[in-house]
Amino acid sequence: MAKNLLLFFILLSVVYTEYSFGQTTAPKYSNEFLNIGVGARNLGMANATIANVDNVTAGYWNPSGLLKDKSSMGAGLMHSEYFAGIAKYDYLGFSKRIDDNSVAAISVIRFGVDDIPNTTELIDKDGNIDYDRITTFSAADYGVILSYARGNLPLGIEGGANFKIIHRRIGDFATAWGFGLDASASYKYKDWKLSAVIRDVTTTVNAWSFNISDEVKATFDSTDNEIPQNSTELTIPRMITGVARDFKFGKTIDFNAELDLDFTFDGKRNTFIRSRAFSVAPRLGMEVGYKKAVYFRTGISNVQWIKQVDNNETLSIQPNLGLGIKVKQFAVDYALTDVGNQSIALFSNVFSVRYSFK
């Protein structure tokens, strides 16, 4: 069974390599706010979590992982800030077990920058500067993820799917609506856990519409700025595979480790493994638990080759750290992580809470 599942994952990789290679007109980075991650437990393990995730956050990471949560209902909440508090990222999730073999969940995400000064109308029609004409606006991305997981499938596989609704807004200037699907599968063989997630499996399409006033258009024309036009933005599929294993030391110490490989098919990226057809970003995460109450987590991600001024390349690795406390059904998690390479932006403190209903 394990060999059959491994062959299945390999075939999926080949199919999506061939399918996506021709989609070079799509931007490399689309709907990236959905790739940051939710849950401080998962972020502390460097996002290497799709095979291990066993709580309400599985609705985001791997919908088939919802089946690992044996509670009747689960709820999760996270708030984080990036770039010295300029950008704020919020997550709210809720899961409900339907029966022994199925679970449903909903996840809501917002990533936004608020109180941005709008100076497009700073100068009035007579050419005078009027600071009272300055207003503020928000640039925010919203995602609603509806998840469903089903167990007891052939070969002992657990399956899951996400339906995503995306709304992006830049003040009153531009809005976009998008819809997409994710698919996932999980399999357990003895102490080994294998999972694969295909995000945007049918290609996610965002339709952008722009609302530019005549006064702003005139300003753009006079300053030789391009006036944006209504358009569509494509997010092509990507696949994440994960393998994890649990270890136990005595009666009090639990240890688990996971290795994830993130495959993208939009041409060469600045990742550890790269080619014209696909790129692969590895992630490694580990968690040590004491009496199932206190947890220490760490991991590495964003493994990239960085070109120096002399054209030589050096390997850059981002470390991640996390802590967790669990008391009965209530869990509080903390992570020290980043949205990119550690040399570009400051690390962020991320907190999240979870509660499992019996």
Biggest sheet strand line-up: 1-2-3-4-5-6-7-10-11-13-14-15-16-17
Shape: globular
Q: How many domains comprise the coordinates?
A: 1
Q: What is the mean pLDDT?
A: 86
CATH level-four homologous superfamily name: monomeric porin ompg
The arrangement of helices and strands along the chain is HHHEEEEEEEEHEEEEEEEEE
What's the CATH C level?
Mainly Beta
**CATH topology grouping:** Porin
Number of strands: 17
Task: Show unreliable segments.
Answer: 1-25
Largest sheet: 14 strands, antiparallel, barrel
Beta content = over 45%
| Helix share bin | 10-25%
The second-level CATH architecture is Beta Barrel
Number of helices: 4
Radius of gyration: 22 Å
Termini separation comes to 33 Å
Pairing-aware structural class of the strands and helices? mainly beta
Describe this structure in words.
This protein is 11% helix and 53% strand. The protein is mainly beta and 358 residues long. It has a 14-stranded antiparallel barrel. A hairpin with a 5-residue loop joins strand 14 (294-307) and strand 15. The radius of gyration is 22 Å and the shape is globular.
Highlighted features:
Porin; 4 helices; 17 strands; 53% strand; 11% helix; mainly beta; globular; 14-stranded antiparallel β-barrel; 358 residues; disordered N terminus
Briefly summarize what is shown.
By secondary structure, the chain is mainly beta. Helix content is 11%, strand content 53%. It has a 14-stranded antiparallel barrel with strand order 1-2-3-4-5-6-7-10-11-13-14-15-16-17.
